[in-house]
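Tutorial handout. Part one gives the primary structure; part two gives the three-dimensional structure as tokens.
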Amino acid sequence: RGPAGPSVLFLLYSLKLANPNYVFLNRGNHENKRMNEKYQFEDQIREIYDGRIFSLVQDTFALLPWAAILDKRVYIVHGGLCEHMDFNVTELRSLVVWKKQLPTHKEVSTRQEQIMEGTVWSDPHPEKGWYPSPRGAGIEFGPDVTRWFLKQNNLQFIVRSHSMVEEGYSELHDGKVITLI
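Part two.
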């Protein structure tokens, strides 16, 4: 997002091509057509290239995974968790092949869509439980939900990037949720 968006994207893709075993990219809430229209990314791509290139960029976004597991210990995701207490990371395999755009929050209806929305929109909350998100999509999840998710999936912590952090990173939920800029 921002005036250098296309340059940053193509730099990341170049790094991925040059170092496929060391550079990993996940999907976030801005890797969809609606957000790209809203924040002028589509206009930026069309100004430099054309509509065909924008369409190809959208196709590449649809191929990005919703989340990743690092070293069988770390859940890496843009946003956070979904509202399903029985969500298991093995469900991520089915999400990887889901190529459609995520519907708007009002249109989200299936379990799969709710899981995807959580991976890109949700945020940690300091209090126990689940809370509606002030963003209008996803949820806020408390430290009890984090502990439960990590235990159920035999993981140690969550790394995410959906929130702006002035210090470069923050630790929440007793160090079990790390947010990076």
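Part three, for discussion. The first helix runs from residue 5 to 18. The chain has seven helices and eight strands.
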